Amino acid sequence: MAIYPREERVAGELEVFAKKVAIVAGLGILLALLWAVREILILIFLAAVLAAGIAPAVKRVRVLGRYWLHRNINRGTAVMIVYLPFVAIVTTLLVILIPRLVADWQSLSVQLPLLIEKNVIQPLEKYVAMDQVRAALREGIKLQRSTMIAYARNVATVIASIIAIFFMVAYMLIDARRLRNVILLFYPPEVRADRRRTLNRMARRMSSWLSGQLVLAAIIGVATFFWLLLLRLPYALPLALFATLGEMVPVIGPILGTTPALAIAILSSPWQFWAMLIFAILLQKFENLFIAPRVMSRKVSISPLAVFIAFLIGASLLGIVGAIMAIPIAVIVQVAFDEVFVARRERRLDIDRAGTLRRRAR
Asked: What is the pLDDT of residues 31-42, one digit of tens each?
């Protein structure tokens, strides 16, 4: 057995320690850089989810092209056939809805203080001094008017982000195969086939979740809009849009989505509030018992506990955006867990598969 001098052992230990410190420092710098560009990474993730949701339609177009036209449609053409109508519909809706939304929000900003004064402050003023509440409300209105530039900047940022997402989705759909192959280069050649199947499973699960969630959100939004019109409540369009967006947020999103409508209803009249409250409860019950099981059946099976934990983590880290991203991330984690642990364990226990450990005979 060779005995190394003490100086060589110390030098070797110092070299190993220096490598470990360098690795830890590199990981820390990498995490800091990723956190610094987290907003861009969020946009990339949202674009990836949308691309995964649209990809099955692109595949269907190529299959139908081979079946009906007896020719192969290249991926770029199939993406344009599917994606351009999608972008055109979204753009048309935005052009039609945004002026109405701006007008409604302006009217709401003017009418809301008057409604609060008439329905809240004046009735309570008989019993409690409301001068401070009225002053605070007035200061809030002044603050809102003084921050219009900041709001305009935020709106411009949102519009720019949406445009960037549209472009990234198009590029991801066209270069889907190339992007997948780049990801597979990080794995050894012998496991790339399994990892390719895992990526395909993740894409299918995210596509299923996105299509089902969009259907649910559209049903909730349309039903809420027509009910608000039936009740003759003002600002039906922005309130219904808020309920639609709330449906996309797990756990507490549907509750928060109906809160503004309930607030406007209670400021209008008691019977409108009770009618809106009963409608919101019945709609949620009907969705949970009938609509969601049929829309989401055979689409995404995620544990409710996993959804709740993902929601808490996402909301605590990134707010409302993190809450929206919670379920896609939970889908990715669940598929990865199935592939790494569950599928491997089932392969070990498969007694009919050659080359595996057989269970001990009893």
From this structure: 888 888 888 888
